[in-house]
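Async update (no meeting this week)

Hi team, since we skipped the sync, here's where things stand on the single-chain job. The sequence we agreed to prioritize is pasted below, unchanged from the tracker. I ran it this morning and attached the output directly underneath so nobody has to dig for it. Comments welcome in thread, and please keep replies under the output.
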Amino acid sequence: MTTGNTAERRPAIDAALAGRLVDAQFPQWADRPLTLVDPAGSDHVIYRLGEDLSVRLPRHAGAVGQAAKEAEWLPRLAPHLPLAVPVPVGVGEPAFDYPWPWAVSRWLDGEVATTEALADSSRAAVQLARFLKALQEFAPEFPVEDARADLAGRPLAHRNRATRAAIAEVAGTFDAAAMTELWDAALSAPGWGRPPVWFHGDFHTGNLLTVDGRLSAVIDFGELGIGDPACDLTIAFTLMSAGSRAVFRSELGVDDATWTRGRGWALATGLNAYTSYAAVSPRVAAQTTRQITEALIG
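Output:
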């Protein structure tokens, strides 16, 4: 939980501020134009900086550690991954009344992935499974005892109270009995009994880019961590249909317990986003309705 007043947690961010920060701290890029990226998600305000860079400024205190985390780990992970990732090239310091670290990263061209284009794509399902396998296989080079504390993932049970409250809140919209049954099953499923592995932590449709209709990049590694990879199975329920989901599961080699926990992650995160944003965003309402429904299907 963050502390402080709303102004401290939500500083005013505009192109003038971003420009001053870049000019002062990265003068080699001072002559490049800034273009707002919209929508950019709930954690960051993002500006394209010239043709090949981006500036990411945290919107709230909960995102302030992401710049340092990505700068530390993505350059090490990127060469081993089959899809592009946004490798940082600099971390900026607080200045001009902006209170937090911020980042300059390589710009990745592409359009945000959509279910309309990729839901039934076995090719995309295989690509995503292979990306996760590559990410997970890199974990032994960074043992948990050597990793920073902010890489430790929280267990699914951490979401229990909020998820049960959300189930009650949306009982008139979704099948409360089915959601409760899935949630109970996810919490009671055997845990990850193998060595901890890398996970993306926020692996959903909005964090995938495509070029010419094909997957090209994975972005936003703010939740990157080491532990149980079940959270990354959320992508199977945000992007895929039943057929491509089966291809994805087979390619990744997911056991029943991990799959059930993954469904639980998809349900919990879908409910959180639905109750927080669906009333004000038809786009979020549609996306999270699909995510919750697909999680219930399995």
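Quick observations from my side:
The longest strand covers residues 44-49.
The first helix runs from residue 6 to 9.
Reply here if anything looks off.
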